[in-house]
Amino acid sequence: MDDEIFELCGPIWAADLPPLEGPDDDYRLLANELMRLMLAQELFPFVTTEPVKQPNQQTQTVGATNNEAERTLRSPAQARKTGRTNKTMIGARRQTIVTSVLESLRLYLSTFTLSSVIAEIQRWVEKGRSCFTELLKKLKLPVTQQSVLDRVLPLPNG
After folding, report:
1. DSSP assignment of the chain, as one string?
2. pLDDT confidence band for 154 (50 / 70 / 90)
């Protein structure tokens, strides 16, 4: 695919043309962007990325789209649309947190059962931190002070 893209876009990119008019400029911009992404090896990362070992020890290929994540969240989104959910900001936050934690634990735990979820959460209480915080430290990723949820669904009082 890289060879074909280079064959199609390479001449326009190599010409380093100034801005053009109408569709010709659209094509110039598209060719330049495709070449930029291809040279940075960002055009088809799902093709070249090695399968990822998840915390639950399963190995999963990297998908070309975010369809799996969207399917996972479809039921909670439909519940919000049809009114089968909380009507307050606090209720929406609570439901979002519970859904997010359970879906994350589904990927984290080797066996996803009610008893394994309860045991994992009890371990959090005893250790004072979640498995997700431990995973961030293991991967040497920063632990942020403000969650994404706080920015998307702020608490009513601030």
Report:
1. -HHHHHHHHHHHHHHTPPP-SHHHHHHHHHHHHHHHHHHTT-SSHHHHSPPEE-TTS-EEPPPSSSHHHHHHHHHHHHHHHTT-S-SSHHHHHHHHHHHHHHHHHHHH-SS--HHHHHHHHHHHHHHTS-HHHHHHHHTT----SS-HHHHHS--TT-
2. low
Measured between alpha carbons, how far is 132 from 118 in angstroms, rounded to an integer? 15
Is the whole model's pTM more than 0.70, yes or no? no
**If 0-12 CB within 10 Å is exposed, 13-18 middle and 19+ buried, where does residue 6 land?**
middle
Which tens digit of pLDDT belongs to each residue from 5-61? 889 998 999 998 999 999 999 999 999 999 999 888 888 776 667 887 877 788 877
